[in-house]
Amino acid sequence: MEALRLDPQRTRAGLLCVAAGAAVVVALVSIVQGGRRELLRSVEAAGPSNVFVRAERGAPTPLTTAGLEAARARFPGLAGAAAVRAVPAVVRGDGADLPATVYGVDGGTLSLFGLKAARGRLLGDHDVRSRSRAALLGARLAEALARSGDPVGTRVTVGVETYEAVGVLRPSSSVAGSGGELAGVDWDTGLLVPLGAEPGAASAPDGEAPADLLALRFSDPSEAARAARLLAPHVPAGASVTTPTQAVEQYRAAHRSFDRVVLLVSVLTAASAAFGVTNLLRASVRSRSLEIGLRRAAGARREDVRLQFLAEGLLLGLGGGLLGILLGVFLSVTLLSRAGWTPHFAPATLLLLAGGSAAFGVAAGIRPANEAAALDPAATLRLE
């Protein structure tokens, strides 16, 4: 510690070399771990036993609710089914105009997606059958509309259509089964009305209401995967069949490529930091040759000199690693979160990185330590 304090400029440079490398690794690992955690949460929320048939906007052959009846006939063991139609609109309530999506939902939607009411009530079977003007507000939409109090019981207007807000949904993040990310819906910012009562539904033919999403629930994930394979060749043009398990497989394939990128960046960063720390310690050996000669003349062994420089490398690595971890966490929380990423920090990973930084410092100090131990004390003292 005394030797490091005597040369603060060189010590700061060594600490910054290690800290910069550790900060980069922390930021990259936090992205990987955050993405993995978010995907698993989405898969769990969306339901691994669900199959989603989604139509692209403007598809030549739109989906209809008749597809649910065909699916029930094809899969007698179907545990649940739902149809959803999404209509982009501007919702007006309490004097505020907000862009939102109006979701027309059928009787099976709320139970299949596990949607719950935070206040008020849910849409009932009577609302769906009669296509009533009742509406459910998503959590964030309700918060934006609630300028003068609870929006339950108030009227909201979408174009020329008017609905009565009968309830507010719980936030999707707190509802198991409401995974809108994989289903392509955002309940939190949406307005839910009975299917057939959404704007523009008056022109829909009876019995075959158009839909943008058909959701099927099976008893287990393997049955859902099998059903997805059977449905894929029979969906209309412009529609796709997906399952949460397919999202996991796609993530794993992308994750392997990203892991290689993280490994490559980590190796290059570590190599740059090792080069810097090694050169700094070698410069320290040259500038402290008199100290080394005096210690050797006073009885210090080669191993004592070697151990001193290895200890200095250890302190530089550990100190720089801890500084880099703090810097990496700060950058991830402030910059990545604002950019839309969801960083996550596993304590075990951070401890492993701190231990790896200490080992890295020792490894970077091996060559300078050997050079210091090999100095001839008599020649060094004569030179000085």
Q: Could you characterize the architecture of this molecule?
A:
With 384 residues, the protein is of the alpha+beta class. 54% of the residues lie in helices and 18% in strands. It has 14 helices and 12 strands. The strands form 2 sheets. Strands 3-4-9-6-8-7 form a 6-stranded mixed barrel. Strand 3 and strand 4 form a beta hairpin. Helix 9 runs parallel beside helix 12, helix 10 crosses helix 14 and helix 11 runs antiparallel to helix 12. The longest helix is centred in the last third of the chain and has 44 residues. It starts with a helix and ends with a helix. The model has no long low-confidence stretch (mean pLDDT 82).
Short description:
The chain is of the alpha+beta class and 384 residues long. Helix content is 54%, strand content 18%. The protein has helices at 2-6, 8-46, 66-74, 109-112, 125-130, 139-145, 180-183, 221-231, 244-287, 289-297, 302-336, 347-364, 366-373, 377-383, and strands at 50-55, 63-64, 80-93, 96-105, 117-120, 134-137, 155-158, 161-169, 190-194, 210-211, 213-217, 239-242.
Question: What topology emerges from the helices and strands here?
Answer:
Layout: H1 2-6, H2 8-46, E1 50-55, E2 63-64, H3 66-74, E3 80-93, E4 96-105, H4 109-112, E5 117-120, H5 125-130, E6 134-137, H6 139-145, E7 155-158, E8 161-169, H7 180-183, E9 190-194, E10 210-211, E11 213-217, H8 221-231, E12 239-242, H9 244-287, H10 289-297, H11 302-336, H12 347-364, H13 366-373, H14 377-383
Parallel strand pairs: 4-9, 6-8
Antiparallel strand pairs: 1-11, 1-12, 2-10, 3-4, 3-7, 3-11, 5-8, 6-9, 7-8
Helix pairs in contact: 2-9, 2-11, 9-12, 9-13, 10-14, 11-12, 11-13
